[in-house]
Design brief:
Blueprint lengths: L5 H15 L4 E6 L6 H14 L3 E6 L10 H7 L4 H15 L4 H21 L2 E6 L6 H15 L5 E7 L9 H4 L5 E4 L5 H12 L2 E2 L1 H6 L7 H10 L4 E4 L2 E4 L22 H11 L4 E2 L1 H8 L7 H9 L3 E4 L3 E4 L2 H10 L2 H17 L4 H9 L6 H17 L1 H14 L5 H17 L5 H10 L4 H17 L3 H13 L5 H17 L3 H18 L2 H17 L3 H15 L6 H17 L3 H18 L2 H18 L2 H13 L7 H15 L3 H9 L9 H5 L2 H13 L3 H8 L7 H4 L4 H14 L3 H17 L4 H15 L2 H14 L2 H17 L3 H16 L4 H12 L6 H5 L12 H11 L4 H8 L3 H15 L4 H10 L17
Parallel strand pairs: 1-4, 1-5, 2-3, 3-4, 6-8
Antiparallel strand pairs: 7-8, 9-11, 10-11
Helix pairs in contact: 1-2, 3-6, 4-5, 5-6, 8-10, 11-13, 11-14, 15-16, 16-17, 16-18, 17-18, 17-19, 18-19, 19-20, 20-21, 21-22, 21-23, 22-23, 23-24, 23-25, 24-25, 25-26, 26-27, 27-28, 27-29, 28-29, 29-30, 29-31, 30-31, 31-32, 31-34, 32-34, 34-35, 35-37, 37-38, 37-39, 38-39, 39-40, 40-41, 41-42, ...
Length: about 950
């Protein structure tokens, strides 16, 4: 099974062709165990035979490493009189006092036979696993290599090797002047995906794609892992996905560590200790765990480094090249011993002054906390909260649970830190923890600070009424901090706006902004502009709101203290400009937010950023990027009530559009029973509603599909302001008309009109209203206007569905040619993100009206050439031809770098080229106007 490495295969084939023409040479193929060295060279054997070469092959093994000329004999003379003659000489050498003469005679005999063969026709000798070959065979091969590269013989020598420690005899052969080396690098992410697809017959889903990285790009290890996970895989609709999260997978089988017996005892021990330290570690950390100076680890680490088991990374850290190896080593260590080693490591790290997060990681693996660990936690909690709030919360909970109730002062200090951690992690329990802390706080200034935290916690949980009450109570008290009072006044504005008292909130926001300007405090300025923007947002003044958002970001950039508020404002900026169909600003805001969240380790804000980014990718049609984004968001240790709705809803919707019904149903089934308990969660309900309706319609139950969307008809101020509601209502109109419920369809049109008026500034609701009215009247002109707006908006799914509706309306009016044209365009749009169900639905709707796409539009895409490229691949190919890098292409097309990498791999394969330069050459040679030449819409010029 061949995946990737096309350039190396081409070099190998060219090398063999040269040998068949009489040019000798030496080729060293390097790669770790499982990299596919044997399969790689064996692929050339048949080609060599077809070209008229004599071929001899042998694989060395550890048992033969001490037997003189064993590898050479297995290759040249597996049996027969020539082997017997050489063995007789070797026996004589073994019995002689000076064996050198007989051994050289045996080597001469073998070399002479090679010369005889080469006199008749070219010869290819393949010595596999040469790192196990005996020294005498390596000496013979070195002599033959010298003859081959000098052109003395039409001889090709192919040698495969792993950089096995302790085999210096191999180096002179590999260093032969004129020889060539091909290194089989680990598979890239895209190549790993391709191998999974080949092995399972289905593309990997987000969970499986992430878990497959445990193989470190090693083909054999990937096969072993997939075999081990076979009972935990679901394959449906051309996609393979894990049924459980990666952290719930069983540890890799013990066979993963089978190659470690080739290392020395100290090197193996070093790896086992390193496995305790996580995927990456520093030499100093390992030295502390081993209880030895770092300089003494040089020899122990040299072996796994040269064997490719460890790799250097930026920042002076080493990492396990194959995460599965670390997991297997970790699982092999008995649990009690592991816990003790973790506890020792934690104390060593703390005493050495390492970052608190690294000490905490060791304590988490160490079971019950010792008295020393509890003292360290109490002292280090502030630093730990800043760098690793999730670890801090887990350790604080352990310490409180196992603590002595009589130590009241220690317990209360730990509970205060736990309240801070719960707030940072946006957990529901933060409210009661902070309320209890406030009840026992007597100092006015400190009580006001706790009130501010309590207000923040209540807002996160969506309890705006109680947050307003706490804010009013705090502002009524006397406390010295002017800045804190101003921040609480900003909170009052936020709560009032959310409680549908936006005009009152806006009236209070002006003085808050003015006071913040006078105070010149960056954090207060950022929070004041955030409050003003929120009030304007609820008044339906989106542009004015975004101006305050931009000003707030400017204030926040002045001080690291305002980083958290800057992250919130950047997320709001991205959402606001997404509503105005301005993807460039959205992409810039999310990129800044993601970098800042990673730098500040702000888990709570990172989850918001990842969720916004996933939604952005979904709308752009990069559904793989969307799935990857919600997967990252879902793994973060936060407890926002809306997060499961976003993660499972968006994932179910994408899978449903791709016609992966069972996987989509599983996502909806994973939603908690109280998923929509909070107003914030209900605002994100549209994806869940649409996914439920899609699955019902796909099962042939249109009435149930309509029923799934009827909650969108609910009236109220809150409902009218939901941005996604108008598009959901347009789906209600479509399904209601198909079910013959014209009254429901009319009601949905009227609801959409009210929502569009409430959201009048934004283009999306106006487009949805055009679609509603066009569907209800089957009016092609209204739907054509909607298509124009959809093209301007740049959201593929919206455009595809509007084109599909236009095709139906034209067919109703007897314009079958126009209907076929619109249908063909709709299908082309759907093909980009892989919306298989939408294609099937569109074909079925039009088929019932006598319209088919026809042979030209329905023909299968060619397997190779420019016509084989999908629309998304075509755009990427044109940017490659302009000389753009993958990160630049990702930025221009608003795709994830992983998606761009996958597209480039597919482009090279379909165009049958090996380099980006060849893509550019082919693009330049295409005639003007041909598919795949410069000038395609949506691709910027160089």
């Amino acid at each position: 099974m061949r995946v990737g490495r096309e350039q190396q295969r081409d070099e190998l084939r060219e090398w063999v062709r040269g040998g068949a023409e009489g040019r000798g040479g030496l080729l060293i193929v390097e790669g770790e165990p499982g990299a596919g060295r044997t399969g790689f060279v064996r692929g050339a054997l048949n080609g060599a035979v077809a070209l008229g070469c004599r071929v001899r092959y042998a694989a060395a093994d550890a048992l033969g490493a001490e037997l003189p000329l064993r590898a050479a004999l297995d290759c040249l003379h597996p049996g027969g009189p020539d082997r017997a003659a050489a063995v007789a000489l070797l026996r004589e050498a073994g019995e002689a006092a000076r064996p050198g003469g007989a051994l050289l005679a045996a080597m001469d005999l073998l070399a002479a036979r090679v010369e005889e063969w080469c006199a008749r026709r070219p010869l290819l000798l393949v010595l596999d696993d040469a790192h196990w070959a005996d020294p005498a065979s390596l000496l013979l091969w070195q002599r033959l290599a010298g003859w081959a590269v000098a052109g003395r013989l039409p001889l090709l020598l192919a040698v495969t090797r792993w950089a096995l420690p302790g085999r210096p005899e191999l180096e002179p052969l590999c260093a032969t002047p004129g020889g060539r080396t091909l290194r089989l690098e680990p598979l890239s992410t895209a190549e790993t995906d391709e191998l999974v697809r080949d092995l399972l017959g289905a593309a990997p889903g987000p969970r499986l794609r992430e878990a497959a990285q445990q193989s470190g790009g090693n083909p054999r290890l990937l096969r072993d892992l997939l075999a081990q996970w076979s009972g935990l895989l679901r394959i449906e609709g051309g996609r393979a996905e894990l049924l459980v999260p990666e952290e719930e997978l069983p540890p890799p089988a013990a066979s993963v560590t089978r190659g470690l017996d080739r290392l020395s005892g100290p090197a193996r021990a070093a790896l086992r200790h390193a496995a305790l330290l996580g995927p990456a570690f520093t030499v100093r950390e390992l030295a502390l765990v081993r209880g030895r100076p770092a300089r003494e680890l040089l020899t122990e680490l040299a072996e796994p480094l040269s064997a490719g088991l460890l790799a250097d990374t930026t920042g002076g850290r080493l990492r396990f090249r194959h995460p599965a190896l670390r997991l297997a080593l970790y699982a092999e260590t008995p649990g009690a011993l592991r816990a003790a080693l973790h506890q020792d490591a934690a104390q060593a790290f703390a005493e050495a002054g390492l970052p608190a997060a690294r000490t905490a990681e060791q304590l988490l693996g160490g079971g019950l906390l010792t008295p020393w660990a509890v003292r360290w936690l109490a002292d280090s909690a502030p630093a730990l909260l800043a760098g690793a709030p999730g670890a801090a919360a887990e350790l604080l909970e352990r310490a409180i649970a196992q603590g002595d109730p009589r130590e009241r002062e220690t317990r209360e200090a730990l509970e205060e830190r736990l309240a801070d951690a719960a707030l940072l992690l946006r957990r529901p329990e933060s409210v009661e923890l902070l309320a209890a802390l406030r009840a026992r706080t007597t100092d006015p200034g400190r009580r006001a600070a706790v009130d501010f935290k309590l207000v923040s916690a209540l807002m996160i949980q969506g309890d705006m009424a109680r947050s307003l009450a706490v804010t009013e109570r705090a502002l009524a008290a006397d406390f010295p901090s002017v800045a804190l009072r101003l921040r609480l006044e900003a909170c009052r504005v936020l709560a009032l706006a959310d409680l549908h008292r936006a005009a009152e909130a806006h009236a209070l926001a002006g003085p808050v902004v003015a006071a913040a300007r006078r105070l010149r405090d960056p954090l207060c300025g950022a929070e004041a502009h955030h409050a003003a923007s929120y009030a304007l947002f609820h008044l339906g003044r989106g542009r004015a709101s975004l101006r305050h958002v931009a000003e707030g970001i400017g204030w926040a950039r002045r001080s690291p203290e305002a980083d958290d508020m800057r992250l919130l404002l950047l997320a709001n900026q991205a959402e606001g400009h997404m509503r105005f169909d301005e993807p460039e600003v959205v992409a810039a805001a999310l990129e800044e937010a993601r970098e800042l969240a990673a730098a500040t380790r702000s888990t709570g804000r990172l989850v918001v950023t990842e969720a916004r980014l996933a939604e952005f990718h979904y709308r752009l049609g990069d559904w793989d990027g969307a799935l990857a984004g919600v997967a990252r968001a879902g793994r973060l240790p936060v407890s926002d009530g809306w997060l499961p709705v976003v993660v499972h809803g968006l994932r179910a919707l994408v899978l449903g559009h791709r016609d992966e019904r069972e996987a989509a149903r599983a996502e909806l089934a994973d939603l908690p029973a109280d998923a929509f308990a909070t107003p914030t969660a209900r605002r994100y309900a549209s994806h869940v509603l649409l996914a439920r309706a899609l699955l019902a319609e796909r099962d042939g139950r249109p009435a149930d599909a309509l029923g799934a969307l009827l909650p969108a008809l609910a009236e109220g101020v809150e409902e009218e302001a939901v941005y996604e509601r108008p598009w959901v209502l347009s789906e209600v109109v479509r399904l209601a008309l198909e079910c013959g419920e014209s009254a429901t369809a009319r009601a949905a049109v009227e609801c959409c009109a009210r929502s569009a008026r409430a959201l009048a500034e934004y283009p999306g609701p106006a487009l949805a209203l055009l679609r509603c009215r066009g569907l209800f009247a089957q009016d092609p002109e209204l739907l054509e206007q909607a298509v124009v707006r959809g093209e301007r908006g740049g959201w593929p799914l919206v455009l595809g569905q509007t084109l599909e509706d236009l095709a139906v309306a034209r067919a109703w009016h007897g314009d079958l040619a126009g209907a076929r044209s619109a249908l063909t365009r709709a299908v082309a749009v759907y093909e980009g993100p892989g919306a298989r169900w939408d294609i099937a639905r569109a074909d079925a709707r039009l088929r019932s009206l006598g319209v088919r796409r026809g042979s030209r539009s329905a023909r299968r895409r060619p397997a190779s050439g420019w016509e084989a490229l999908t629309p998304a691949e075509l755009k990427v190919a044109l940017l490659v031809a302009q000389g753009r890098s993958n990160p630049e292409i990702a930025s221009v097309l608003f795709l994830s770098p992983r998606t761009v990498q996958t597209h480039v791999s597919h482009i090279l394969a379909k165009l049958q080229v090996r380099s980006r330069a060849a893509v550019a050459a082919q693009a330049a040679a295409r005639p003007p106007g041909a598919a795949g030449t410069p000038g395609v819409p949506g691709v910027p010029g160089p």
